[in-house]
Structures are given as C-alpha cells and as structure tokens.
Amino acid sequence: MSPPVRTLFAALRRAVCSRIGAAMILIAGVGFLAVVAVPNFVKLGCRAKQSEAKTTLRSAFESQLKYYAEFGRFESIKTSTLRLKSGNRYTYCSSPEDCLPCDAKAHSSCAATLEAARIACAKHVLHSGAGATEDNFTLCAAANLDNNTQDLDIWLKGRSNRFEHVSDDCN
C-alpha cells in the first residue's frame, strides 16, 4: 500500500472508532436514564390514579356536609347525590355495608377489591351508614392500583376535612 492510502485508512479507522465510542457512550447514557426514569414514570401514573380518590372524596365530603346542614344527620353513601364516573378504580364506603363499588367493566380486580375494601374500610370508618345521627363520619376509598393481591390504596376523609392516606399501593 502506498503511504497516502495507508494514511487514508488510518484516518478512516480513527473516525469510525471515535464514532463507535461516542455511540457506546450515548447508548450507556440512554440506558442509565431509562433505569432512573421508568420507575419514576410508573410512580407518576400511580399518583395520577390516586387523584380520583381525592377528588371523589372531596365531592362526597361536601355532599355529606350539605345533607347534614339540611337534615341534621349524615346520609348513606349509596343514597347520596354522589355519582361515580364510569371507569372508577376505587370502591367508596361510609360503612362496611354502605359501599359504592368500582367499575367492574373497566377493572378486572374490582370484585376482589370490593370485599377487601369493605374489610379495610371497616377498620377506619366511624360513620354507621343510612339513618346515622352521629356528629362524625369518615369516608373511605380503596383500590388495587397495581393489580397485586396483597395491598390496597386506602384514603380516608372525615369531618375534620383532612385526607389520610393509610395505605399506599404505589410503592
């Protein structure tokens, strides 16, 4: 090989090797970002699902206060003016017997969630359901957000107007 051709091959080899090296660094960087970003993205989706519970509990809370102001007692969640949107993930309870179930057409884990929600919410709910005359109530929202069979995401909202997140299914 003549010297100009050898020089050309050497220059070409250096250019190719530097591009391959840069591509490897780029791929490693993208891989690192994926390792960090994907779990955060999944957690963000779960947090967005939790906003359903907060919004609905806030609405149910306001409905309960209006009913109490008019009738002097709290109403059953089943007979309340609260209407759930189709596709709701959470089961809402004011007592173990007084629950509005999640949308079974939209979520396959809904039937199991209803019974688990009744049990879980019974531990926290003070309000005894229809015809109650107590000066206190607690509304409960429970859902299986990650579709495992062990944990439920449970939110409470009571007369104190505070949200209490007693079980987080997003972790």
| Count of alpha and pi helical runs | 2
- Which percent band covers the strand fraction? 5-15%
Q: What percent of residues adopt helix (DSSP H or I)?
A: 40-55%
State the low-pLDDT regions, or none: 127-133
What is the mean predicted local confidence, pLDDT? 77
Shape type: rod-shaped
What does this protein look like?
The protein is an alpha+beta fold. The protein has a domain at 49-167. Helices cover 48% and strands 15% of the residues. The longest helix is centred in the N-terminal third of the chain and has 69 residues, at 3-71. The relative contact order is 0.12.
Layout of strands and helices, then pairs:
Elements: H1 3-71, E1 91-95, E2 98-100, H2 110-122, E3 138-143, E4 153-158, E5 163-167
Antiparallel strand pairs: 1-2, 1-3, 3-4, 4-5
Structure summarized in a few sentences:
The chain has helices at residues 3-71, 110-122; strands spanning 91-95, 98-100, 138-143, 153-158, 163-167.
Features:
single chain; 171 residues; alpha+beta; 5-stranded antiparallel sheet; 2 helices; 48% helix; rod-shaped
